[in-house]
Amino acid sequence: MTMLRDLSMLWSLFHILILFMLLYRSRYPRKKTFFLTGITMGPLALLTVAGLMYYGAEFMGKIFILTLTLPSLLFFWFMSKDKNGKFFFTFCMTDTVALWIIAVTNIGDFYLGGQQYVLMFIGRLILFPLTEWVAYQHLRKPYRELQESVDSGWWLFAGMTAVYYVLLTVTANFPTVVTKRQGELPAFLLILVLMPMTYGTIFVAMYRQLLLSRRRQSERILQEHKNTLEAQLGSQQNIRKMKHDMKGYTVTLSGLLMDGKLDEAMKYLQGIETKMDTLTGEYCANPYINAVLVHYAEEFKKIEAKFQYNIHIGTEELPYMELCQILSNGLENACDALKGLDKEKREVSVQMRYNRNSLLIRLKNKCRDDLYVARGELPATDKEGQEHGFGLVTVQEAAGRLDGDIFCYTEDGNFVLDVMVSCKAFSKAG
Predict the structure, then answer these.
(1) What average pLDDT is seen over the chain?
(2) Is the pLDDT score of 386 beyond 50?
(3) Of 419, 406, 411, 349, whose CA–CA distance to 377 is shortest?
(4) pTM for the whole thing?
């Protein structure tokens, strides 16, 4: 009946891979990920089962960390998109869950199945697919969102799961398998009970972090809408004031013309034009984008920051919702960063221009001397630690809806955010 034991182990190894691949983020496309995993982990799993058949479960249980765990750790580290605590937590969690199922079915078979391995085989046949179904239906989506949104706390959780992994391995197999150490079995069973409770605590803590991240994003979006509406309201009030003042301007201009004072009339007309530009804050022809720029120009004025702009867009129909979202988040981050600098260092600039089939946006502002963002990296979404992190995910999502992307870095004491969106996506967004 040892064939059932060996088949159940092969089944377990196969489903450990499936469970891990449901949760971790590969840096390769799905097909390539499955192919590389199959040609690497498949032979490794077969060799492990062959060793189990030849050397026995007790011997392989003592060395499988070296023969299977470490090689798979190195392989998936190479494959993973995350090279940090997120990867180690996912890897250790998956392995400890699998070890838990293996240990429970092993003990159940020893005491209830008479070591015929039938109960072990049936238990693993059911529990592994059931665990994968729960992971896919209830865990995968929020867990992926956690990986995208939360950057802190992963190393602590990874350390906890690594300790559990080693604890399960040692207590289950050293110096002999736990079923041969009857006096230590109650302590081992308590470990098996404690592990799901610990993971439940970890996921509750992580889910709270996710809810906090969602709330911050919602607050950010609401603030964007508030700022845009306030800017539009301010523009409308300026226009109403202009209409009211225009009557007086017309009377004065008519009087000058009737008296034949053409030079004075021309000078007065130029003054009116200057006054209109001051009231409207005409940064560009697009009223929505202009409203955002007007609002933040006032915000920068309040903190005595130097605001420069170079806008080269006309009256084209633009996807103003996404572009206003990009500008609002970028300029809000810049405003937050400048508040922490000395007044003489507060500088920010906005550039927008067409380049063939793309619309290019560059936001640049002075930043702290100790702030460093490598080219292509996205700062962590922790507003207290990285002023530019919070909101950049929203910018990236808005750019992605326009078939574009963002690129940020620090250079010569400036934080630079480059956004490129496809003009071909404008008709879709509109």
Answers:
(1) 82
(2) no
(3) 406
(4) 0.57
Written as one letter, the residue type at 71 is P
Task: Report whether pLDDT(396) > 50.
Answer: yes
Give the Cα separation of 160 and 279 in Å (integer).
Answer: 60
| CA 219 – CA 345 distance, rounded (Å) | 29
Q: Return d(Cα 241, Cα 188) in angstroms, integer.
A: 79
Q: Where are the domains of the chain?
A: 2-180, 283-429
| CA angle centred on 239, ends 233 and 244, rounded to 5° | 130
Q: In the prediction, which pLDDT does 384 show?
A: 46
Convert the pLDDT of each residue in 301-313 to its tens digit: 999 999 998 888 7
The answer to whether 258 and 325 are in contact (CB under 8 A) is no
The DSSP symbol for 344 reads G
The backbone torsions φ and ψ at residue 396, rounded to the nearest 5 degrees and listed phi first, read -65, -40
Distance from C-alpha of 267 to C-alpha of 205, rounded to nearest angstrom: 68
- Characterise 117 by phi-psi region: left (phi > 0), alpha (psi -120 to 50), beta (else): left
- Exposure letters 252-284 (e unless 16+ CB within 10 A, then b): ebeebeeeeeeeebeebeeebeeebeebebebb
CA distance 231 to 281: 11
Per-residue pLDDT band for 385 (boundaries 50, 70, 90) equals: very low
Are the C-beta atoms of residues 296 and 335 closer than 8 Å to each other?
A: yes
The CATH number of 283-429 is which of 3.30.565.10, 3.10.290.30, 3.30.1330.60, 3.30.70.330?
3.30.565.10
